[in-house]
Design a protein that fits this description.
The structure holds 2 protein chains of 2 kinds.
Chain A: H1 2-27, E1 49-55, E2 68-78, E3 86-95, E4 109-120, E5 123-133, E6 149-157, E7 162-166, E8 177-181, E9 184-185, E10 195-206, E11 212-218, E12 221-222, E13 232-233, E14 238-241, E15 251-252, E16 258-260, E17 275-283, E18 295-303
Antiparallel strand pairs in A: 1-2, 2-5, 3-4, 3-6, 4-5, 6-7, 8-10, 10-17, 11-16, 11-18, 12-13, 14-15, 14-17
Chain B: H1 3-11, E1 25-30, E2 33-39, E3 44-52, E4 60-67, H2 69-72, E5 75-77, E6 82-85, E7 91-99, E8 107-119, E9 126-140, E10 148-154, E11 158-159, E12 164-172, E13 182-188, E14 195-201, E15 212-219, E16 226-236, E17 239-251, H3 261-269, H4 273-306
Parallel strand pairs in B: 2-9, 11-17
Antiparallel strand pairs in B: 1-3, 3-7, 4-6, 4-8, 5-7, 8-9, 10-12, 12-15, 13-14, 13-16, 16-17
The chains are: A mainly beta, B alpha+beta.
Chain lengths: 304, 307
Amino acid sequence: MSEVFKIFVISLIILFGCIYGGMLLLLGIPEVEADVATTSVTVGNAVPSVSNVVLNGGSDITLTENTATTVECTATLTDNNGGSDITSANAVIFRSGVGSSCTADDNNCYQVSCVLGDVSGNDRNATCTAQIWFHADPTDSGTYASENWDCEVTAQDSQNATGSATTTTPVELNTLVALDVTPSISYGTLAPGQTLDCSVLTIATTTGNTAIDANISGTQMCTDYPTCAGDTIATSSQHYATSSVVYGSGYALSDTPTLLEFTTGKPTTHPSNQAQNIYWGIQIPSGQPTGDYTGENTFTVTQD
Amino acid sequence: MDLKKLLMILIFSGGVLVWRNVNSSGFGISPPYLKNDHLVPGSHFEQTITLTRSEPKEPLKITIQIEPPEIENWIKVDKGKEFEYPANLTQFPINFIIDVPENAAYGTYYGKIIIKATPIAPKGQVTVAIGVQAEIKLKVSGEVFSDFKIMKVSIPAFEEGWPLKFIVTLKNIGNVKTRPSKIHLDIYDNFHQQLLKSGDIINMSWVDPFKAGESIGEMKVNLKSGQYWAEYEIYKDDELKVKDKIRFNIHLPGTLRSKPILKRISDFLTASPFRLVLATFLGTLILVAIVLSLISYLKKRKSKIQM
């Protein structure tokens, strides 16, 4: 048995040696050569370039009522000294009419810095995020209908050399019609036959990017709203006006929407600087049964 | 005021809620219109209107009213005409789907959509609901209209030997299917100095009427792995729509798609001479062990037969 084991070990060594030797022949034996040449070269700085600038994924921008909306501008930055040579990037997101050299303005010009992505050869992606406010100028219609929104991205390298590019596929910024209004009207406790002048204030604030008007309508008030099978107070018992006036000098509320021209315009700052006061009054008919009367009034907003 | 009169006021009081809510509630829509100037009888067209509010603390009941009845039947809303705007969403897109009847007369149809937002729970004596009106303008004619708006362009990374794929994401604003008629490409080296290849792509894929989608075309390039520049021109008929440049990457074969398991094992083992030697040694041991076991088994069997 020990002889068999010896033969086995020797065979194993020979087999392994043959296989390893064969593989070295197949793969090639690494060669090492001495290098005696000395070379030198001066690498100059390459100016970074910017390409594929895309604003909001190429889609039109839709804003959010009374607040800011996150909008991204992306680009590919390239530097022939290597992507790692790009040290920073910034972007201007702007309405085309004001140009990329615009002064920062939340209506038409947003200047932001960009976040750089991983280096890939000579390239580096940039993502530039802006918070666009609700009052930014729309370009889908109105005053700036012939314009659009662009993004210009500028890349900077370690030698402070810069390169920039602008979107070739600009987008529209959509009109936003929006209103923020006091959510309820409370007339308090009144006696039958009592009249309350138009003095209860609701504030209608424009929270979009265009001037608005409103169609005002309402329902009768009743003790079992919205069923209104019980006691009711007629819709026309409520009056409204754009200033505090005596009852009867305002407009009688109707279930048919009635246009109320707002004197306000497009907001230009945040919080909105366009608010319309509307004062409400009511007359309780004589003999009105006691109860808690509730109802619903509607402000239907239209673009001015 | 005598006591009797005061008592009467209290008895006949018309409301007891004196809660004054100093908060406000906002609501808006964007864009405030539903319009299309290039419809034909039988057209299918969809448009999104986004409902929005900055403080979505509680859900809202949304009701949609479309006027006049003449076109109401053409227009459907993906979420129906009554639904809930959920809490915690500052934007809530709804899709309006317009199907122009085959027998619709040519003309411009005007109307309005009233989108009303009401709190689920009433607020105070008189709840104030906000409605927003969107204008409708739908022009139906027999005219063929073909045009598109380019949204973005891309060349996805690909492997050596694969064709270059050029993708144009576009919005078809016409009433017939569309595509770029030609893409002209000039491909440069990594340093944007040497022109390596030039050519046209003419068989881009189609995008349906009034839809946004990708129009894709291919071109054989036969370039080694690396980074390249492509200068492109996108044409609609003879009109140059967009001219720009873009980076793209070509990778070594087999680096972008997953390989079969045997190929992956083979690649792993042959990645270095050490791994190859170790695998060969272990494989030889296993082979010899199997052979020895077989010899041992045969010997035992032979001795059993002899006994």
